[in-house]
Design a protein that fits this description.
Layout: H1 5-18, H2 25-30, H3 38-46, H4 48-55, H5 58-72, H6 79-84, E1 97-101, H7 112-120, E2 123-126, E3 143-146, E4 149-150, E5 153-154, H8 158-170, E6 175-179, H9 189-198, E7 203-206, H10 211-218, E8 231-236, E9 256-261, H11 267-274, E10 284-289, E11 297-301, H12 306-312, E12 319-325, E13 346-347
Family: Belongs to the precorrin methyltransferase family.
InterPro entries: 4pyrrol_Mease (IPR000878), 4pyrrol_Methylase_sf (IPR035996), 4pyrrole_Mease_sub1 (IPR014777), 4pyrrole_Mease_sub2 (IPR014776), CobA/CysG_C (IPR006366), Siro_Cobalamin_biosynth (IPR050161), Uropor_MeTrfase_CS (IPR003043)
Pfam family, one: TP_methylase
Length: about 350
Amino acid sequence: MTLFQIPNMLARAVTRAFAPGGECARTEALGPSIPGVGARAGALASFRGAAQPRSGSAPQGLGGLWRSAFLGGTNDLQGDRLATGRAADHRGGNHAVALVGAGPGAKDLITLRGVRRLEAADIVFFDRLVDPELLDLTRPEAELVYVGKAPGRHSWSQARISEALVVAAQQGKRVVRLKCGDPGVFARGAEEADALRMAGIDYEIVPGVTAASAAAAATGGFLTERGTIDTLVLTTGRTEVAGADADWLPALRPGCKVAIYMGVAEAGRIEATLSDHAWRDHIQVEIVADAQMPGQRALRCGPTAIADTLRGNGIKNRTIIFLSLPKDCALASGESSLRIGGEAGQACV
């Protein structure tokens, strides 16, 4: 059981206790097993009679009651916060739609603000690679809608997703769009934000840990290193125009690291792009798959062996391809000892 799962379990108990005919003793019974919860559970029981008449509907009133008791303290169980069910944190908490970054996949890498938005949501639209346990953070009555996209197979078009966000917000629901990684990094968050803006709907962006950061950390490395790498480029193996290349090649100079998202299917084209690079023999390639997940793998290879390494290790998606050119390679460009070569799939972790 994780720390974030505990509030959800209690929330479900509170929901049962405050339902017609429910017994507050159920909530109080959970208290002794979790430090610091007993007194707050008792406080919730004492507020049962006051909460329902002011809330108008059990889910809305209970949401505010729950957040006030377990996130903001029992002294805050009063006034509009009890009646409206809004989150205690007002830094963006009252927006109709939250575009929330879930992080790279591991459930414990979502931000605290992201957790709070999930706890307050009436409806959550979530992606394919989101950890299912994150959905346990939602209230029992929250609606969960899968809108995931697999390579070449989109259950929902982007236009349909954007329209659904608008419609749900117009119905007065608190909406969370739960996206893998960070909503602003190759996640099409801008398209959803544009649709909301055009409809006059207020929204917020809750940043998440992007895949490149997670991948570097998974190998014990860093995206930038003083004296070695001082330029970072985040790019994609796919562009809006089929067959077009992202224009990252000119940036790959000594002192630069390029992180390629969604590059597995384009590995052959990446190799071809690098084939005529002036520093090709000094480019360091690192492939990180399933970063921060139980099955994570990290491999090193030469710039001419990327496709073979991916294929030979059965790597298909959820992968970052790093291309690095340390600054010192410029000083030793003529030394054959620095040649990386094309051997595929040398494990680095």
